[in-house]
Design brief:
about 140 residues, alpha/beta, 4 helices
Length: about 140
């Protein structure tokens, strides 16, 4: 069973739930995914949640960037998701980790990390999702 981490905006909780179900049906073991942190305890809980998420990436076979459209931006990737993708890539390049880095869709040109994603796609370090199975 392949282990997967889903990264993306926790504010898109309905889309997160859809992707969790999508991967569960395909027998992936879901190690982590974006979760909303309660506002009242955000500063207390965020460090632990953040650390746990990165630890999950170190155990994953697949890191799936769920860059759904958000705030009128096509293929939105925020700072957190880009940091998580960069961490996955660092695992792959520095430690030779066998991790597949998959992005749901090409981010719009207005997304801050557009140029990096475009370069990483050309280098073959990441790939775009297709309607086929995530793992080749």
């Amino acid at each position: 069973m392949k282990k997967i981490v889903i990264a993306g905006s926790a504010k898109l909780h309905e889309k997160v739930s859809e992707w969790v179900k999508f991967f569960e049906i395909r027998n992936y073991e879901i190690l982590d995914y974006p979760k909303i942190i309660e506002k009242e305890r955000f500063m207390e809980l965020y460090p632990m949640v953040h650390k746990s998420f990165f630890e999950s990436v170190t155990k994953a076979d697949v890191l799936f960037i769920m860059n759904e459209d958000k705030n009128g931006i096509s293929g939105y990737i925020g700072a957190e998701a880009f940091a998580e993708l960069t961490f996955g890539l660092a695992q792959k390049l520095v430690y030779n980790k066998e991790i597949e880095l998959v992005i749901l869709k090409m981010p719009g040109e207005g997304v801050q990390c557009y140029d990096e994603i475009n370069l990483w796609l050309k280098l073959g370090w990441v790939r775009l999702y297709s309607n086929k199975e995530i793992v080749s």
